[in-house]
Amino acid sequence: MTAGVACAATLQPVTVAVVSLAGDPRYAPKQLERAYPEHPAGRVLDAARMAVDDTALALQEVGVALVLRDVQLADAQALPKALAELKSARVQHIIADLPPELLRALVQQAPTVLNGAMVLNVSSDSDALRNEACSGSMLHIYPSRQMLTDSLAQYLAARNWRKVLLLQGPLPGDQLQAAAMNVSARRYGLKILQTKPFKLSGDPRDRDLFNTRLLTNERDHDVVAVMDSHGEFARILPYATQWPRPVMGSNGLMAMAWHPQWERHGGPQISRRFQKQVKRPMQSQDWASWVAVKAVAAAMGENPKAAISQQLKQLRAGELFVDGNKGPRLSFRSWDGQLRQPILIGHGDGIVGLAPLEGVLHPTEVMDTLGTDEKESKCQMRP
């Protein structure tokens, strides 16, 4: 037996479950073919696998090896059985790629069933899950909706593009995006001149609601903000407005956790390795999954024998850091478990800015200008 094999045989396996929804509409073949900006391009398990490889050598030093377990739920009713199986396998670390309602159910049940759990959210931007519906057992790698709109608002304020025409779709996700954008506008001195509804429909009576020139016919605005969680209307809006105005929000100028064209802090190496291994570009959800595994590795590397509750406390207290290849060391906020992080501002072909923008100030940590700050937080749950 070689020394390497002997060493591997003595490593303590720590299983990390990647929990997703088998029939998730975000991963339906037709949805993936459309490739809407900032929508997932594939399952996050791929990025988690890459992170396991990236952290393996460091964890060998403390006698630990991470092992992934793919768990795809048929529906919400399958959750109790899945958790029972994870309990039998002594799993306490969960990477969650789930819709907000199912994610909330998971984080409500998992800590009790598993005798303690760390749930890492890698795809939901729900502000509610970071405020009134928060959990002391949940860490958010993916940025919140408010972080994303704050980043865009900072950029618009820096360019002095302060007059905004807001186009809002009929879906609940569209309404939540618009609400976050309104909060961001107030924070950074933007003026929402009008909010107009849009609707994609084959009904002739609704034709004015998807007429891009009619919706943008006033001249006073500097920029058109489109809030479209589905993505189809936002796709057709750039260069289809009545007046030459930039489009932002769900297309055009966007705020992102990751972009394949990020050229700094080792970004190209990460994107190229992912492209080579998975045969597609790394998206924001993939980056979040990659960082989630690195967060688990950071906790295990600090103290492999620590209880899951202690790991959560150390991460949420900002005692442990993660390198996300975006510049500064990344840490979690104590009040809501959100990962502090720079947000990339760009479009399909590249990056034009990085939030927080230069000149934006905060009493303690400038990255806390993005999203819900401690004094604003409605989260009452701590680990």
Descriptive account of the structure:
- The chain is of the alpha/beta class and 383 residues long.
- Helix 9 (232-236) links the parallel strand 8 and strand 9 (247-249).
- It has 2 domains: 3-143 and 259-341, Rossmann fold (3-Layer(aba) Sandwich), CATH 3.40.50; 146-256, Rossmann fold, CATH 3.40.50.2300.
- Helix 4 (79-88) packs parallel to helix 5 and helix 6 packs across helix 7 (172-187).
- The chain starts with a helix and ends in a 28-residue tail after the last strand.
- Helix content is 35%, strand content 17%.
Can I get a quick summary?
This protein is of the alpha/beta class.
Number of domains: 2
Compute the number of strand runs. 12
Which structural class should the secondary elements be placed in?
Answer: alpha/beta
Described by its quaternary structure, the protein is single chain
Radius of gyration: 21 Å
Set down the secondary structure blueprint.
Elements: H1 3-9, E1 12-21, H2 29-34, H3 45-60, E2 64-73, H4 79-88, E3 93-97, H5 100-113, E4 118-121, E5 138-140, H6 145-159, E6 163-168, H7 172-187, E7 191-197, H8 212-215, E8 223-227, H9 232-236, E9 247-249, E10 254-256, H10 267-278, H11 284-302, H12 308-316, E11 343-347, E12 350-355
Parallel strand pairs: 1-2, 1-3, 3-4, 4-5, 6-7, 6-8, 8-9
Antiparallel strand pairs: 10-11, 11-12
Quickly list its features:
35% helix; 383 residues; 12 helices; 12 strands; 2 domains; alpha/beta; Rossmann fold; 5-stranded parallel β-sheet; 4-stranded parallel β-sheet
